[in-house]
Amino acid sequence: CYHTKIITTSPKAKIAGAVHIEFDEHDALKSAREIVKTAIENFSNRKGNIYIPDEQTNQIAGFSHETINYLLGGLFRASYRPLNDNIINGRIRGVAGVVGCNNARVKHNEAHITMVKELIKNDVLVITTGCNAIACAEAGLMVPEAAREFAGKGLAEVCETVGIPPVLHMGSCVDNSRILMAATAMVKDGGLGDDISDLPVAGAAPEWMSEKAISIGQYFVGSGVFTVFGVTWPTLGSKEVTEFLFKDFEDMYGGMWAFEPDPIKAAQLMIAHIDKKRKVLGIDKARERVLYDMEMRRELDAV
Ligand code: SF4
C-alpha cells in the first residue's frame, strides 16, 4: 500500500518481483546514488496514512577496530591498552557485544534498549552492530553525553575522558567479525588472559529473527564468548540438545549459548558471566587508588 520497492543488490540473492540494482564495490557511490534516486522518485507514491515523527537524535558511528585503537591510544601509540587497563582497574566492568535483528513477535526495539541501558548502567561498555545499533541511536545512546546520563560512574568517567559514547557502533550486522577482532586485540594487549574465553565479555541478540543471527552467534560461542539470545529458542523441545548447547559447549569452546527473553534478566546473566571471568582473572575487586603524600613516601623509603 506504500508502493515500497524491494531492491536487491547481490547477484546471489535476487528476489522475484524485486528491482535489482547490482552493487559495484569498485564504485559504491554510484550504486548508492542509484538506490537513493529510486527511493526519491518513489516518494510521491506514498500518500495517505503516513506518519513521520518530528523527533530527531544525533549519533556518532564508525567505530571500526582501527578507529577504537586510534581513539584509545592516539595516532602514534594506537592500542587497546587504555581499555584493558580500565577493565583491570574496574572502572569498566567488561565489554558486551549486543547485536542483531528486530523481531515482529516483540515490541520494536524494547528488548534492545532495555538490555543496553542495563549493561551500561552496570559499567559494561557496549559494542554494537546492525539493527541493535539503529535502536541505540534512536534512543540517544550513541553520543558522548549519553555516558553521563545513562552509564555507571566508572564507565562514564572513561567515556568522558576519551570522548566516546558508552555504546559504540561498529557497523552493519555483517561486520560482527570486527567485534571479535576487538576481542582478539584485547587478548593480545595482555593482562586479561590468554584466550577470548578468558575475557570479561559477553554477547547477545535480544530480538534476533534471522538464521544468520544463529550462525553469527555460533561464531561468537565457538570463539569462546558466552552468548544469550531472546524471543524464542529453537532447541527447547529437546532437553539433551539444549543442555549440550547451554552447558557442554563451555568445556569444548569456553563459550556457550543461553536463552532469556526478559532483557533485564538476560543482561544480568551477561554481567554474572563477566563477573565470573573477572574473578578467575583476579580482578574482581577494583584496585583502590591511593594518592601518596610526602610523609607516606618517606615511610615507604624507610622500609
Ligand atoms: S539480519 Fe541484520 S539487517 Fe536484517 S534484521 Fe537482522 S540485524 Fe537487521
From TrEMBL:
InterPro entries noted in UniProt: HCP/CODH, Prismane-like_a/b-sand, Prismane-like_sf
Transmembrane segments: none
Lineage: unclassified sequences, metagenomes, ecological metagenomes
GO molecular function: hydroxylamine reductase activity; iron-sulfur cluster binding; metal ion binding; peroxidase activity
Name of the protein described by the UniProt record: Carbon monoxide dehydrogenase
Keyword terms: Iron, Iron-sulfur, Metal-binding
Biological processes, Gene Ontology terms: response to hydrogen peroxide
Family matches, as PANTHER family: CARBON MONOXIDE DEHYDROGENASE, HYDROXYLAMINE REDUCTASE
